[in-house]
Design a protein that fits this description.
Helix content is about 55%, strand content about 20%. It has 16 helices and 16 strands. It has about 600 residues and is of the alpha+beta class. The chain starts with 6 loop residues before the first helix and ends in a 9-residue tail after the last strand. This is Histidine kinase.
């Protein structure tokens, strides 16, 4: 992408992209971390605040219920209401005609309420229109009679008489007086401790303003607090649409939280719900998400500004660093443009005593020295190549002369009736033609096998009964391509080394075959074999070759192919996939196995 720009521009662009990626990644990770952490803490704070506020509401209601339970189980209350229910069927307020009992009950209520007047009103009543109360709020006799005689009260009484626990009445108008002040009530049944029958009720009232005071969160004025009844009605708020929204979101909430859009307030809100097991009311804390996450937006802006500042400073530093780093390279470029055949040197000024500049001067000086030596070698190589071409032209004449000579000898043998001489000349001619043909680098095992067979036949003619040989080959592997002249040198090695100090008869066994996806050729003799020093030398050379060390050129010349040269040429074609084994033969002699993959591709160095 930047290959057409200067090196300084490329380095600047590369490192700028890296730094930009790091900054963007860091910003993303930090933003993600702070977002999750802030949102988690905000949600936890809302849940804790919801639970705390709900506990405060429950504490208020439970305190009222405790007073109601204390009154309902008191012997004075039990004596009046149980006897009244069992023995006196007359309807009318019992306490108007029994002032002493009224005084006893009021004294009881006063002692329970205490001098601080902890509740607004305590009322005792039943379905016979009996009623007595005590509190800071004055009642109205006509309102009392009207309430006790109403069908609504009779229905409520009939529905509540079977309930054994506390009855929490949501905010309502004060039906015991003409006041418009709204109140909340907790009612307990006055139950016979023997028959567990409800003979009346105790109602403890508190002004609704006291509950509202608990719902006013002074420390978090942007949080709205709502109470929903068991039925989902919003308590204290006549807005039915808002009630339906919060009831719906409360039902849809997975757990205690809900993110939703509120069309009444035209905003997205986060609501935390908690349902009281005591009252059945659900407390909902609602907050505008924009207000809730405003600090997070500020934090993101701070992170973004900081990232831009860091990126700007870093890019400025990268610019100055890359310019300083590339200055010697610019000098080097200008100096290299002055290099020619007559000036193989450079001179870079080291104004700042930089070690890199000194190393560049030294490295290029050494390079130019090697270049000059290489040029001298090229000139010498060209001269040697010319001489080699002359020798090659001359060598092409020698086989032609030998072929003609062998033809003459064969003709003489034919005239003399010595057919064995003709066969030997034919085999020798085939061998010369095979070894001096450079048309193909690779041959097949079949061709190599035929060449080795001719050589063995000639050796058989020479040594007659003193020498025997056997050849066995798997026909399926004879067409595999292999390097030329790798088998005959192994057989020749038997005569030059194996049989040199061994008395006849001599024996050579040659086998060829396929094992899996590899071909192999084995040559075994009954000669003296390799001594330990020779074997160690052969294997040491093989290990150096396997380790990738260079091979000396004079060991590869075609005029004196030996065992090592054969192995080297196999390795150059098959690499680590080749087979090479040297081992003692039984009962005497040496057995050498070579081979390689059956694939045609070369594999040097694999």
């Amino acid at each position: 992408m930047f290959k057409h720009f200067h090196l300084q521009t490329q380095l600047f662009a590369l490192y700028s992209c890296i730094i930009l990626g790091i900054v963007v990644l860091a910003f993303s990770l930090l933003n993600d971390y702070f977002s999750k952490t802030f949102e988690q803490r905000a949600v936890e704070n809302m849940e804790q605040l919801t639970l705390k506020t709900s506990d405060q509401v429950d504490s208020l209601l439970k305190g009222m219920d405790g007073l109601a339970l204390q009154i309902a189980t008191n012997p004075v209350t039990q004596d009046v209401f149980v006897k009244r229910a069992k023995s006196d069927p007359v309807t009318g307020n019992y306490f108007l005609n029994h002032l002493i009992k009224e005084r006893e009950v009021k004294d009881l209520l006063a002692s329970i309420n205490g001098p601080q007047m902890s509740v607004m009103r305590m009322s005792l009543f039943n379905d016979k229109e009996d009623y007595v109360e005590f509190g800071s709020k004055m009642d109205n006799p006509s309102s009392i009679v009207q309430r006790l005689a109403s069908g609504e009260f009779q229905q409520w009484y009939a529905d509540s008489i079977e309930k054994s626990g506390p009855i929490v009445i949501p905010p309502h108008s004060d039906y015991w007086s003409e006041s418009e002040e709204r109140v909340i009530s907790v009612v307990r049944g006055i139950r016979d401790i023997v028959y567990f029958e409800t003979n009346g009720f105790v109602e403890v009232q508190q002004p609704y303003s006291k509950l509202q005071a608990l719902l006013q969160l002074d420390k978090t004025p942007d949080v709205q607090v709502y109470l929903l009844s068991r039925e989902g009605t919003l308590l204290g708020d006549p807005d039915e649409r808002l009630s339906r929204i919060y009831q719906q979101e409360m039902n849809l909430a997975s757990g205690n939280l809900r993110h939703f859009y509120n069309p009444v307030h035209d905003r997205y809100e986060l609501a935390s719900f908690h349902r009281s097991a005591f009252s059945g009311w659900t407390l909902a804390l609602v907050q505008d998400e924009r207000t809730l996450f405003a600090p997070l937006r500020t934090l993101r802006q701070t992170l973004l500004i900081s990232s831009i500042a860091v990126l700007s400073v870093t890019m400025a530093l990268i610019f100055f660093i890359t310019r300083r780093l590339t200055k010697p390279l610019k000098q080097l470029t200008r100096s290299l443009r002055k290099v020619n055949m007559s000036n193989l040197s450079i001179d870079i000024r080291n104004d700042h005593n930089q070690n890199d500049i000194h190393l560049l001067n030294k490295a290029f000086g050494q390079m130019f020295d090697r270049l000059k030596n290489s040029m001298d070698l090229v000139i010498q190589s060209q001269a040697q190549e010319f001489k080699a071409q002359q020798k090659a032209l001359q060598s092409q004449m020698n086989p032609h002369f030998l072929y003609n000579t062998l033809s003459v000898i064969s003709a003489v043998g034919d005239e003399a009736g010595v057919y064995k001489v003709m066969e030997m000349c034919h085999k020798l001619s085939n061998m010369l033609r095979y070894t001096t043909s450079f048309d193909d680098r690779d041959v097949t095992i079949r061709q190599e096998w035929k060449h080795a067979q001719d050589y063995l036949e000639l050796m058989k003619e020479r040594y007659e009964h003193q020498f025997v040989y056997e050849m066995a080959a798997d026909e399926s592997g004879l067409d595999i391509p292999i390097p030329k002249l790798i088998l005959q040198p192994l057989i020749e090695n038997c005569f030059q080394h194996g049989f040199k100090q061994t008395q006849p008869p001599w024996r050579i066994e040659v086998t060829a075959g396929v094992n899996g996806n590899r071909w192999y050729i084995t040559v075994g003799d009954n000669g003296t074999g390799f001594d330990s020093i020779q074997l160690d030398s052969i294997m040491a050379k093989w290990r150096r070759l396997e380790d990738g060390n260079a091979v000396e050129i004079n060991q590869l010349k075609l005029g004196g192919l030996g065992l090592y040269n054969t192995v080297v040429r196999l390795y150059m074609q098959f690499g680590h996939r080749m087979i090479f084994q040297v081992e003692p033969n039984s009962p005497s002699g040496t057995k050498i196995t070579i081979g390689g993959d059956m694939t045609n591709d070369t594999g040097y160095g694999r």
